[in-house]
Design brief:
Length: 162
């Protein structure tokens, strides 16, 4: 189930049209253009709402993504590396987003710092292929209100993160 804040964030992200993955040469280029347009719009929306919380870039082929995400808590800025690969079967299969520095520090993580997205995210993603893309995955899985560090079982402190 998606909360109202997430629903609002998702509604501001353009839906994608091209169903193509890394193996679909020319169509993949078109899909990447749509991905970048959606990411740019999402970042603009976040900045307008004073909720800027991530930066992403990719390799030349658009198959490996990396960057930073951050949030403020108790006047401390927590900044983490974020990374993921685009699966060969993308967009049918969603990317597995990882925050490697949080590996083992919160209950909402798999080995390697991959964020647990199975229960709510995967069915929603499946219903929205090919409309959802990287910006949608970030909004649903890593946005500051969904951040694994906000989990009550998190062991994050200012000292053990940096």
């Amino acid at each position: 189930m998606v909360d109202d804040g997430t629903r609002k964030a998702l509604s501001g992200i353009p839906l994608l049209k091209t169903k193509a993955g890394p193996r679909d040469k020319e169509l993949w280029v078109q899909r990447l253009k749509e991905e970048y347009q959606a990411l740019i719009k999402y970042v603009q929306n976040n900045k307008t709402a004073d909720m800027d919380w991530f930066r992403l870039e990719s390799n030349k082929e658009g198959t490996k993504w990396f960057g930073k995400c951050w949030y403020m808590h108790n006047l401390h800025k927590y900044e983490f590396d974020v990374e993921f690969d685009i699966p060969i079967t993308y967009p049918t299969t969603s990317p597995e987003i990882a925050l490697p520095e949080l590996d083992g520090k919160t209950a909402k993580m798999y080995r390697g710092g991959k964020i647990c997205l199975t229960d709510h995210f995967k069915p929603l993603w499946a219903r929205n292929v090919p409309k959802f893309g990287i910006a949608h995955a970030m909004a649903l899985g890593v946005s500051t209100d969904k951040h694994p560090a906000h989990n009550k079982n998190s062991t994050l402190t200012k000292g053990n993160v940096f």
